[in-house]
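Objective 1b: paired records.
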Amino acid sequence: MPPSIMNIAGRLLRYLENGLPLQIGDLSLVDSSQFSAFQKSVYEAALKIPHGETRTYSWIAMRTGSPLAMRAVGQALKKNPIPILIPCHRVVSMKNIGGFMGMTDPSGREVELKRKLIGIENDYLNPYFPFMEGFIATSAA
């Protein structure tokens, strides 16, 4: 396997096991000539969402210069050739978690995977420390 693929595979493994940020940064992993200008702007905006955070479809639409194109954003994300690397799981609806990989059934495997990916990132940023259970910080009087 080429070194770049091995590098990405290693990063993905660390992401899935420990929630470590992937830090892809740009679209150089894919042949972006296959994307429309709108798709490219959607994917670039998704790459700017910080690890462990989410943004709405309307947030992405604003960054593409088409503030009313929320549905078009969803359609572009549906065609994302490398989910997780282009973090479309971080894009949510204003009302709910939204769809993932073209599927919108809240009990479907795809949306469940989206929940898990968001959870992995949240756990990385907010680790659980069992020894802290019941601890209440008090201020000195």
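Objective 1b, second protein:
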Amino acid sequence: MRGSILIFAVCAALAAFTAACNVRSGNQTDESQVQDLLVHEITADMKGNLLPFWKKSSVDHDDPRQGFFGRIAHDGTGIGDAKKYNVLFARYLWTWSAAYRVLGDTESRRLSDRAFNYISEHFIDHEHGGMHWTLNADGSLADPSKITYGQSFAIYAFSEYYRATKDDESLRLAIDIYQLLEEKARDREYGGYLEGFSADWQYNEEKGLAEGRIKSMNTHLHLLEAYTNLYRVWPDSQLRESLEHLMDIFFDHIVDTSRYHQDLFFGRDWTVDGRYDSYGHDIEFSWLFYEAAEVLGDTDLLERVTSLSIEIAGKQLSAGLNHQGAMIYEKTGEDLYRRNISWWVQAEAVVGFLYAWKISGDPDFLGAAAGVWEYIKEHMIDYRHGGWHPDLDEHGTPVPGRLKGDEWTCPYHNVRMGLEVYERFWKPLQ
């Protein structure tokens, strides 16, 4: 299977590169050709590489609790004694649920059921509510903290499982966690959400993902994503207010329109604490923000969001790509960059640039998406062991020792890329 993918990728590379160059030069006649090629190649990688890799490598068949591995070696071998993490397991559930919903893949349905059952039994805190942060390898409790970032992925995953299966318990869990966040985490004085809590939801400033600050862009971005998905299946008026509030937070505090980047960390009153340009988060925001406005169905809001999303995507196109067409990680200061190439950043770049092309009509965005995909094929797909290399140095060489799966490395970003491309761009062609 992997050999055939390699042959397919190599044969397609020159044609795609030529077409992408034509698009960047303004040759409109090539846009449909490039779109068609991207859609078919990305879908082939999702169906023939990514999903098979994760189906084979993530499932712990020796676990009597019917779980998944918390870590996966670079060759796809599961690491049985690794801890299990809120974010990883919620992303497993989202991935299998979305794959079943979009592709009708029966094995993904089975795996989504397995993930839902495991999370419901072992991760959910049936006393205080919410999802525990970390379990030991045997499913016992390691860290009972409630981290807003992690709760957002629980909502995202339970909502997707409900979209795929219409399981009422999953919708109830998503709503329960949403209501807990509104009660415990929402900052009614300054707006936005606090990030870290004890097991019984007592605020703890030292927890969370704000790296010593009070609030972070990243947590609010994934709350936006989660609330959007929940609103699809539960269009509640209070949830709508919460989602609109989140969008206002981005407009008013997180997005710096003088730079068309997001600020990353803040004090409680939204004072910016350190300024970095995170190209992957910015391009991811550009399409998730558009998606949220689209789901809300407010014409005026969508018009405003469309303009901002195009500007954000344009800035990442001009500032975030290296000479090989890949998106670098971030700018940390004046002329200081982290130039490593991360799997998730490339996946979000493909989706973000494709969205920007569709809503703007600017062929440069399509060319950028094609360029990033070319880089993925050339450097990031692991044709030997399957899946993608998670991290490359600036020269495109895999970083030694990186795991294929861990608390942050998972199928969510690149499988979602495939599903977005399939659902947004393949189905309309049929």
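The domain at 80-257 is CATH 1.50.10.10 (Glycosyltransferase). The radius of gyration is 21 Å.
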